[in-house]
Amino acid sequence: MTETETNAYDVVVLGAGPVGENVADRTRAAGLTTAVVESELVGGECSYWACMPSKALLRPVIARADARRVPGLSQSVQGPLDASAVLAHRDYFTSHWKDDGQVGWLDSIGADLYRGHGRLTGPRTVTVTGPDGGERVLTARQAVAVCTGSRAALPGLPGLDEVKPWTSREATSAKTVPGRLIVIGGGVVATEMATVWQALGSKVTLLVRGEGLLPRMEPFAGELIAEALTEAGADIRTGTSVESVTRENGTVVAVTGTGDRIEADEILFATGRAPRTDDIGLETVGLDAGSWLPVDDSLRVTGHDWLYAVGDVNHRALLTHQGKYQARVAGAAIAARATGETLAAQPWGAHAATADHAAVPQVVFTDPEVAAVGLSLAEAEQAGHRVKAVDVDLSSVSGAGLYADGYQGRARMVVDLEEEILRGVTLVGPGVGELIHSATIAVAGQVPISRLWHAVPSYPTISEVWLRLLEAYRDA
Amino acid sequence: MTETETNAYDVVVLGAGPVGENVADRTRAAGLTTAVVESELVGGECSYWACMPSKALLRPVIARADARRVPGLSQSVQGPLDASAVLAHRDYFTSHWKDDGQVGWLDSIGADLYRGHGRLTGPRTVTVTGPDGGERVLTARQAVAVCTGSRAALPGLPGLDEVKPWTSREATSAKTVPGRLIVIGGGVVATEMATVWQALGSKVTLLVRGEGLLPRMEPFAGELIAEALTEAGADIRTGTSVESVTRENGTVVAVTGTGDRIEADEILFATGRAPRTDDIGLETVGLDAGSWLPVDDSLRVTGHDWLYAVGDVNHRALLTHQGKYQARVAGAAIAARATGETLAAQPWGAHAATADHAAVPQVVFTDPEVAAVGLSLAEAEQAGHRVKAVDVDLSSVSGAGLYADGYQGRARMVVDLEEEILRGVTLVGPGVGELIHSATIAVAGQVPISRLWHAVPSYPTISEVWLRLLEAYRDA
Fold this sequence. Notes:
The structure is a homodimer. Chain A is an alpha/beta fold. Chain A is built from 16 helices and 21 strands. Chain A has helices at residues 18-29, 44-49, 51-67, 83-93, 100-108, 160-163, 168-173, 188-200, 219-231, 320-338, 355-358, 377-382, 398-403, 436-444, 449-452, 465-475; strands at 5-14, 34-38, 112-115, 117-120, 125-129, 135-146, 150-152, 180-184, 203-207, 235-237, 242-248, 251-256, 261-264, 266-269, 273-275, 307-309, 361-364, 369-374, 387-393, 410-416, 421-429. In chain A, a hairpin with a 2-residue loop joins strand 11 and strand 12 (251-256). The first copy, chain A, is globular and about 70 Å long. In chain A, strands 1, 2, 3, 4, 5, 6 and 16 form a 7-stranded mixed sheet that branches. The first copy, chain A, has a 5-stranded antiparallel sheet with strand order 17-18-21-20-19, sandwiched between helices. Chain A folds into 3 domains: 5-43 and 99-151 and 275-355, FAD/NAD(P)-binding domain, CATH 3.50.50.60; 152-271, FAD/NAD(P)-binding domain (3-Layer(bba) Sandwich), CATH 3.50.50; 368-475, FAD/NAD-linked reductase, C-terminal dimerisation domain (Enolase-like, domain 1, 2-Layer Sandwich). The interface between A and B is large, with 84 and 85 residues.
């Protein structure tokens, strides 16, 4: 190709992760023409280096822990996990890092895939540099949607490059189990990956700068996870910074702020995320390269009526499911604006990603599981709501005791005292992962407390914690 | 005692199962004086011969099945369940059929317990015949609440008594595993107990009069359970009646309508329930002994302003959790009427058991689990709602595939097309038991479809079936 080819579309989507895929799906469903640009694998971080592999790795750990807590069964669950079988299963769930299936799906919805690196080269214009170095210009009559996601953020430690540290990508795709693993961080990636690798046979040391794990959640979540990880054999050191890392004869050495020297075979940095917006031509449309992109509730970038930023890049909620939700909203908004339809932009309308503010759910697939939706008590108070938190010890629920011998867990419901609705719910304990969606519906649905009394939990399930929470609120 | 003692209360409760306990709790909390009469164990059927023992027996079966479907773990789950450990754990969960704990709880709320057989001997009057034959008369200023529950109904087969058949009581409290077990019936008790005893080592033959299992639920529920039970080794014969049963030299012989002769060590009749109202003096207040007691939404018996029938006896929903719900409503209604307070008797008000009509949840703890709430498609159509059912194959949900290799399951949502709310949801599959409460909140909360789109399921959980259901409805 000697001359640059130009193709015109209604919508150009940068990034073919789950978020980009959903923008493409919704705009195609509305009859718009859509191009999708991807420089790596179609399916994105989630499919190959995050949700899918991490959960494929975690499920055996959780299922084994569950089975070992059931009298009559526990005795027959012997020995460690079969690490090679677990890793092979993980490979299956990432389709062995091949994207044929997802490419086929994009094709089936009639979106055009451009492989290569896409950069804005002006308003409504994206230039794609293909693997062969050739360039194509894509123009977008209606919208460009930036769905490039995020990458692991690494701290500025000298010599870090030579150490070849793990990020979430290596931690979810590693082919062998390191004998010793240092994990830096205390958030979701850190706790999930510490859980996996400790269970698969690594000796894990978790170095946490802050006071505890999962700092953005209710405090008891991190406390219960820390207890469980410690019991599983991990060494957790909170209030610990890392001052230097080196690799000597294959061995990683981390030196902490207090001068402790910790050796390991690998080191994982799970120290936050950075937006993948540094090389997508933002500067050509007056935006800062490498910045998170602020958007309104239709996911449109402030000040640019043709530009959308959907998923991690807008920094509203760095979660696949929330990005997909935003993608559905953004896709519908793009389509509505294309046809001149009035937007349902009021809170909870079809063109407003209201849940981003009030009802973001998250499940941490550790043992015990942690699941939360909406605001923590601290967040609700900070937001100016007049709230009351009620807590229930999950061991008081019959269904929990039946689920696991010696069940340990905790639930909190944050009630808005003015409106008598829920602002947030947090559950920690074995088997609570699927239970959080009940809270998500209650919070997003703004179902009043008086009506929740009519939502009867089946006896004897763990869901009966709902009755205990309502009673605790009534009797408080 | 030569003279009959009389004690006056505000409320007299007949039956100290979970339902009676909750009526006592709510009336005591309102400051009324309450007596509770119980002829067997405080805690009732649920604690000793139903929910608790059955779920203690089922949990190891389900947990083992779950564990064996997880690559990397499955190989290490060897051999059968340890039946003696399972039975011992069941004994623990029934407190070895001793009620000290529950007696202590009744005492703690300040309710007076009368051990003995209670019978109405006129309006607002209950006479208790104690274990020593002595009588006490209890009078009730405000209300008598009949919470005597139900018992297994046995068919009128000649010679049945000599066979000493199992009912739900024996099936949940048996001390040894029969080599061969015949189960008569196709409902919840039949499927759950067939699941338990087949897994503990019995050879189970299930004789079902009707066309399939779980006939009151969506048809696919019974179909999936039948497939799984058959795969587990049970012999299921539908469309099969039992004409006679005998026990010869210890062996039970059942002869079917087609002349087949089936031998077993024990035979379980799970053929429905009968109200325990045959010997409680109903005839002294103009009601029929042995009948179910029709009530209004405050659980008050039609035509008797002082008489309440709560739980199984009113035949609204024969489920512990629903009986407890009714007990909370009835207790509140009794208290409100006692103080002359206006009742919140409108639908979904605090004094109306509205969920009985619209949002009864049920979990069947089989493998796969079955969970449903509200109306099935057939029930919704029969009730005159204009509805549409949308189905989703659970194997299409990422979280399901991660939960279990080769996941098989199905979900149905019944949407009211006029009001755009859900009339019912049914889920069948491993791990769906805790997921149904999300549907219970959606149905009882009458959360509109448009709002359910903002209740984002966490990725990758089985709860993402919600997104698939909404998409299926949107695209239908």
